[in-house]
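Hello Y.,

Per our agreement to keep a running log of every chain we model this quarter, I'm adding this entry. I've kept the format consistent with earlier entries: sequence first, then predicted structure.
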Amino acid sequence: MAQQNLYARFAKNTAAICGRSFVFSGAVGIILVWLVTGPYFQFSDTWQLVINTGTTIITFLMVFLIQNTQNRDTEAIQLKLDELIRATQGAHNALLDLEELEQENLHAFKNKYLTLAKAAREQLRLGNLDTGTPEV
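Predicted structure for the entry above:
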């Protein structure tokens, strides 16, 4: 558990730092230095390999960090949405934890809401309101 917390803190802090403008500026600076040194190294294969290897390693590691922070953010958003559904009178509690359903169950819910949206647009077209609870 402590190791997961350590990685989560590391991923969160690293993502926060890497998202700042000075890190982007530093990356652009490294690329500019690499470009300027091209003639000095006669645009050799080693010169190209340096930037290719560096960017590959950084990209490989950043994928895991980004995925970690994305997973955490998505889970937090889902929990907040679940709480809003749970606390809203008239909301369908069956929509709680919807992201855990199988694809065919998700499609059934989606089709239900597509039908509701189509009916609401038709009501708007007729000059009526599209607010309220359509099931009532």
